[in-house]
Amino acid sequence: MTHSLLSPTATLLVGSLRAAIARGGDDEAVAARVSRTLAGHLTDPFLLSAAQREPDPNAYRQHVLHVEPDGSFSVVGLVWLPGQETCIHDHVSWCVVGTYVGEEEETTYALRGGRLIPLRVNKTPEGVASHLVPPGDIHKVCNNSSSVAISIHVYGADIGVLGTSIRRRYTQPVRAW
Fold first, then answer.
1. Cα–Cα separations (whole angstroms), residue 122 to 10, 35, 65, 139
2. Which tens digit of pLDDT belongs to each residue from 53-86?
3. What's the order of all strands across the beta sheet hosting 139-142?
4. 3-class DSSP state for residue 125?
5. In this structure, how many other beta carbons lie within 10 angstroms of the beta carbon of residue 27?
6. For residue 173, what are the contacts with CB-CB under 8 A and spacing of at least 6?
7. Helix, strand or coil for residue 8?
8. What's the whole-model pTM score?
9. What sign does the CA torsion over 173, 107, 82, 11 have?
């Protein structure tokens, strides 16, 4: 599902992502290349329309921006109001996240002995992209700031069919820091 409401600069982003993914390689190489590609577009103020920046007062909001016709990748905008967060989860595919507006906070975890062990907290400011590759991609993302945060996510999966990039939600106890 390609959305006709993509801005001209978002259309350029999709073309750049398509070229980066087509170069192939293992998931780590593809995700790293996609991360670098996305980072180059995160400072464009015209990347998202006003409608694609709309939040939801009850939970972070997902705007599916583009799904490649062959299902090989999807581009999603996530809009976060202060205090909104994901559950602790992992992914169905490699995942690239770039902060477009504001700042996101990510806590990564390892699963050991039936408990989630927090590994680190990363704050990702505007213009910065990073990537995750399963397995070992358990994390939670939140907006701990006092203003809206918007991130652009690129997944190596067809989010139009799946509806989400989440493989598993984790409810195990979390060890205190």
1. 26, 16, 26, 11
2. 999 999 999 999 999 999 999 999 999 999 999 9
3. 115-125, 103-112, 139-142, 89-91, 166-169
4. strand
5. 14
6. 114, 115, 116
7. helix
8. 0.91
9. negative
